[in-house]
Predict the structure.
Amino acid sequence: MRFLPLLATVGGLLSQPALAEGDNGIEHLTSETNFSTVVRQLNDALDDNGLSLMATVNHGQNAANNDLELAPTMTFIFGNPKAGTPMMQCQGSVALDLPQKMVVRETDDGVRLEWNDPHYLAERHGLEGCDLPLDNIAGVLNDVAERAAQ
């Protein structure tokens, strides 16, 4: 399995390794901004980038509703058919991973945003033979996360 290059570290409050340990296709940023602000800024960043928010899952609230404890954790499900449809036309199994998701969760190190690297999804689903704007998609996702983490 090939390893994807690491992205440069973003100054200030953010750190941006491209993949978590193990080359599992999960990118992340960590912010010292509070959870509710990151959530609000993520919603704004999605909208500003032309991405449709389809659903949110409040895992922390769902845990509390069942007398369980979980740090604040939410999954945002979003996308743009102009980006996702060509991927699914290339290989239908990519629909298992689309629409895109971004997790926001509170950790001891700050608020962590996590999402799937589109290059990893392309490798996972065998999209190498298709002409897809994976770098552009990755750039938009990174921009959304950076703006949310400010």
